[in-house]
Amino acid sequence: MPKILIIRFSSIGDIVWTTPIVRCVKEQIPQCELHFVTKASYAEMLAGNPYIDKLFLLKDDLAGLTKELSAEKYDYVIDLHKNLRTLKMKFSLSGKKFTYNKYVLERWLFVKFKINKMPPTHIIDRYFDAVAPLGVRNDGKGLDYFILPAHEVDVTKYLPVEFQDGYTVYVIGGSEATKKLPHDKMLELCQKINTPVVLIGGKEDVENGDRLVQVAKFPIVNLAGKLTISQSASVVKQAKRVFGHDTGLTQIAAAFHDTIYSIWGTTVPLFGIKPYAKNSILLENKNLDCRPCSKAGAAVCPLGHFKCMNDLTLEFE
User: Fold this and answer.
1) Any alpha helices (H) in the chain, and if so which ranges?
2) Helix axes 183-193, 206-215, angle to 10 degrees
3) pLDDT (tens digit, 9 = 90+) per residue, 209-226?
4) Residue 6 near residue 100 (C-beta atoms within 8 A)
5) What CATH code would you report for 150-310?
6) What's the Rg (C-alpha) of the chain?
7) If 0-12 CB within 10 Å is exposed, 13-18 middle and 19+ buried, where does residue 118 land?
8) Exposure winner among 17, 67, 294, 317, fewest CB in 10 A?
9) Can you give the pLDDT at residue 200?
């Protein structure tokens, strides 16, 4: 019985991208014992995953956790994070090591000089390249997100009666300001959605959400900052449609919906990071030669005009 460890410390979108690998490794390597290690703050994302036999959580003690993992005597270690910490961890673990190509140079050329040498593949496909030597192949079943019963949300308790016939989720969050629409464009998007709107995000998005609620003349509820990751995923799962910026909950939405509307500013889906859905509808301003200006977003537009979002045409069916 081969014992296998998958490493991905963070973050929300990247962790949900590992779920097809988890499923396919477990199903395609006979009788394997599959372990996973991630940061403790993301435990609920994987706690209900039936393909994971044992979940290890990184808190503050990397050395202590590495020692604990060393005792497991792994046959294979699959690093789907690939940074200095995971490199240090791998060196202390037994077994054959596998990792993926992050295309760091190609991404740098794209951001710095707008020279696109990125492969036309999703990061998930690169993850599968890493496990191909083990005979693991993509089964085409997409993402998984298993919500524990304790995290399932009864939307009738959170949403007014006019939402009970259906609502659209707008994920208003984003790790940086240049990955999020400005307030007036957020309002324009909500108006064009033309159904009751539920806003989802973190605590840092509460103010933006409250501002939208204050000026909106249509049914809208702000749940930003009120839910855990999995509770937010539950609300997303029950929505009729999902719109979102380049952020984790937008990626999670692809585990539940065939069609996802994603909004792009400083970053670009050509990094291989569009929502992994059957029908991934991209809302982006392609009439600019300054995109991408960052690999992961920035606090302000480096050119000061923020045209990627300010001039974005919000058209969709």
Assistant:
1) 12-17, 19-28, 43-46, 62-70, 84-91, 104-113, 123-131, 155-158, 183-193, 206-215, 229-237, 248-253, 307-310
2) 60
3) 999 999 999 999 999 999
4) no
5) 3.40.50.2000
6) 20
7) middle
8) 317
9) 98
The whole-angstrom separation of Cα 212 and Cα 265 is 20
> Residue 141 and residue 133: Cα distance in Å, rounded?
20
3-134 and 150-310 agree in CATH topology:
yes
168-171 and 197-200 as β-strands: parallel, antiparallel, unpaired?
parallel
d(C-alpha 255, C-alpha 126), whole Å: 19
- Evaluate whether 152 touches 301 at the Cβ level (below 8 Å): no
Q: What whole-number distance in Å separates Cα of residue 12 and Cα of residue 104?
A: 20
Question: Sign of the C-alpha dihedral, residues 35, 37, 42, 43?
Answer: positive
What is the Cα–Cα distance from 314 to 312, expressed in whole angstroms?
Answer: 6
Please name the amino acid found at residue 224. Answer: A
- pLDDT in the model for residue 144: 98
The domain segmentation of the chain, as residue ranges, is 3-134, 150-310
The torsion of the CA quartet 3, 138, 39, 232, rounded to 10 degrees, works out to -140
For residue 305, count other CB atoms closer than 10 A to its CB. 12
Classify domain 3-134 at the CATH topology level.
Answer: Rossmann fold (3.40.50)
What pLDDT, on a 0 to 100 scale, did the predictor assign at position 50?
A: 98
* Tokens describing residue 171: 């994920």
Listed as ranges, residues in the chain with pLDDT below 70 are: none
Identity (one letter) of the amino acid at 114? K
